[in-house]
Amino acid sequence: MITNARVLQDDFLPNEVVHRHTEMNRVTDALEPVVEDDIPEDAFLVGPSGAGKTCIARYSLEKLQEERVDIDTHYVDCWQHSNRFRALYKVLEGVESTYDVHRSTPHDEMIAQIEDRDQPYIVILDEVDQLADTQLLKQLYSIPEVTMLLICNRERDLYAELDERLQSRIRSSVTVTFDAYTHDEIFAILSDRVKWGLADDVIEDPLLEEIATAAEGNARDAISILRSAARAAERDGTGEITARHVKHAVPEARAEIRQKNVDKLNDHQQHLYEILRENGGGSPGELYAAYREAVEDPRTKRTVRSYLQKLEHYNLAESSGSGPSRSYNILET
DNA sequence: CCTCCACCGGAACGGAGGGGGA
DNA sequence: TCCCCCTCCGTTCCGGTGGAGG
User: Fold this and answer.
1) What pLDDT, in 10s, does the model give residues A159-200?
2) How far apart, in whole angstroms, are the C-alpha atoms of residue A10 and residue A8?
3) CA count, 13 A, side-chain hemisphere, A227
4) Any idea what the Cα angle at residue A287 is, between residues A285 and A288, rounded to 5°?
């Protein structure tokens, strides 16, 4: 049934990008000078999740490398590597170097490794608003060989973190805005994946429409749902994806994402999440009291506050109100 | 309108842990 | 081997904030 599992993965890059030609062109126009050995422009990609930002960024770099081979490129997910060392470490991974990076390497030396290069280096910083340390952005901006593709969901999320000088630099770079995909576009994207990744006639168009609707403009979600449904159908051995498979796949795809995030939490954080789930929510005070009861050797209130923030960061919880009316709620969507 | 209180989150600190260099 | 430099994580301390209730 699944003939090419790669095609159903999140990070699969199709060999042609559909529906995003304008955005694609704007990004390549910014980078194109590098082919003639000129200095490319930084670009800033803004838009909701699943709108193709990451895909376009990676795709345009791939195309660029076909035209000029001696460019280094790299992809860094700032959400996963939010502190300065990890992000820098990731950035450094992208440059060809025999240089050995270890935990005790001073930042300056790592930066120097990037500075000392004479080839262009284009790096994608995905979810750049999650970067805890904006110092890194500043430093990278000051290196002429480095060009950045910054990706984030909302412009103001990033600006909130930055000082004015950096803000104006980013404002002056090429900004490409992405809108969520329309229902039809999602449908077309799904059709392509079906064509390349699944055997013929395993899913009917109306079901694909249903997936497209459930995904609400988010291509990543759409593909996750399709993947879930295809796996379920394969398990059943029915030979085709049925309405039942799709129906289950919608919550399953969400649960899968949630579980991935829960797995990243430490024991104390997981306990806290359990408490939040049992109670459905509560004030920080109540949650802390329950947490204190539940674990031996509980952490301090301040630490638990950080944990709650972490849950929010991973989209497992949401907070509302402030001061005495502050409360946390479980996020099950 | 004002005061109180729970909560927020930045900052500084310290111990554990890991790795290089003398 | 020891020392140094780094990160990571939790702790302590504390000024700030905004609703609730007088």
Assistant:
1) 766 777 777 888 888 999 999 999 999 999 999 999 999 999
2) 7
3) 20
4) 65
Would you give the DSSP letter of residue A198?
Answer: B
Cα A31 from chain centroid (whole Å): 22
How many angstroms is C1' of B1 away from CA of A327? 27
Contact flag, residue A83 CB and nucleic strand C, below 7 A: yes
Distance CA A32, CA A24 (A): 12
Chain B: nucleotides below 7 Å from protein CB are: 5-11, 17-20
Does the predicted TM-score (pTM) go above 0.90? Answer: no
Sign of CA dihedral A312, A317, A322, A327: negative
Side-chain-side CA neighbours of A286 within 13 Å: the count stands at 14
User: How far apart are alpha carbons A33 and A12 in whole angstroms?
Assistant: 27
**To 5 degrees, how large is the angle CA A271–CA A331–CA A291?**
25
A323 touches strand B (CB under 7 A): yes
Per-residue pLDDT tens over the stretch A218-233: 999 999 999 999 999 9
Q: Is the CB of A165 under 7 A from strand B?
A: no
Strands A281-282 vs A317-320: parallel, antiparallel or unpaired? unpaired
Q: What tokens does A140 get? A: 């990278």
